[in-house]
């Protein structure tokens, strides 16, 4: 197909075993004392942006004092006293987890037993007595926990508190030993994850070396690369390719550390809300945020991230669900389409023609061929995209300029070699746009139809439009397109 920017797919995948749409997850921040799916603790009275996991104790027999809830105290770290999770509440939560079928990763208190050091960090070994009793109680009750994560945002310079990497590594090994011992007679055992904090290359390198080759299952990091939610320029950042590209170094550096260390540890994004302090209403809960979110999923997959936990399922202004109506926000549908369409093999992909198009490709999920994700950050240009496969990475295309479109918008054209198409073939396309063209809209359109649940709360059918596979993919201004091309022969998908 000539006359369009091209997307080039290498013959081999760059992250063959990434779990793709199977592990697009969300943290939970909904209610008093709620446990996280992927490491977030929210108390009933605090802002969802402030970590409290490391101030939680557990109401097991060893606690030795009443199991009291959080209370505000300005003189305490994070502005709260310790809070206690009762076993009754833990039982109720696990009943919910079982009914929902969710895989639960629970962040446990990593500050017990520590003392302040002169350099401002928290020192001394982790006192795991109380945590061990909770883990043992959980195992004895037969509750299924997918993973136990040690601490929250204590890496590097930390948030409110920090722990040195050498000591943290020793504590991870203690948790690993504890989990191995408690689950010794079980057919499977939970993962051990750490540190659930912001990436600091030197700190993370120490942790990886200390725990290699197999004492840490998952290394988790958090992402709030857009800054505070109060920033009035968030939309400008989301639409800026340079800002989005800023995360490449984190993903790349972490993978480099893991590969050079020769460890079995894999990387997850353990928490990502984009903008901290609960995000920003009509930005992080609106259509425009899907540009950031889907780009994050595509980029993290490219660098072999095995799971991506979005902050949050519900809570703050970055929830996938509206906190009042419980209706899905646009990113819910973006995540659902990713889950259904993007397979577990990530294809090496380059795009040439304009930096306003973000392009990612995977082998299609549960289908032959491939699925493309195309994100158009331009508000005035429709880009037409064709696809080809090469033997050696990307091949540059020749740009032929642009011509005006109705309403002052443009079409951008680049001549590229055509790729083989089945005669009369079709492809499935899913075009996502905001209602009334408003990037701040909380209503997403799929192929021109508004997405909303019915009166019974059922998710609408996410139906594709069938397009002539011999024609370029037209990516409208400020839109997102998933294109599933079933007949496309990418060797890595065979």
TrEMBL record:
Domain of life of the organism encoding this protein: Eukaryota
Keywords from the named record: Glycoprotein, Hydrolase, Lysosome, Membrane, Secreted, Signal
Molecular functions (GO terms): hydrolase activity, acting on glycosyl bonds
Location(s) in or outside the cell: Lysosome membrane; Secreted
Region ranges (Disordered): 1-32
A GO term from the CC aspect: extracellular region
Statement: the UniProt record of this protein carries the keyword Phosphoprotein: no
Primary localisation category: membrane
InterPro entries per record: GH (IPR017853), Glyco_hydro_79 (IPR005199)
Transmembrane segments: none
Bilayer topology term: Peripheral membrane protein
PANTHER family named among the record's database cross-references: HEPARANASE-RELATED (PTHR14363), OS06G0179000 PROTEIN (PTHR14363:SF36)
Entry's family note: Belongs to the glycosyl hydrolase 79 family.
Function according to Swiss-Prot or TrEMBL: Endoglycosidase which is a cell surface and extracellular matrix-degrading enzyme. Cleaves heparan sulfate proteoglycans (HSPGs) into heparan sulfate side chains and core proteoglycans.
UniProt-recorded name of the protein: Heparanase-like protein 3
Gene behind this protein: LOC100193781
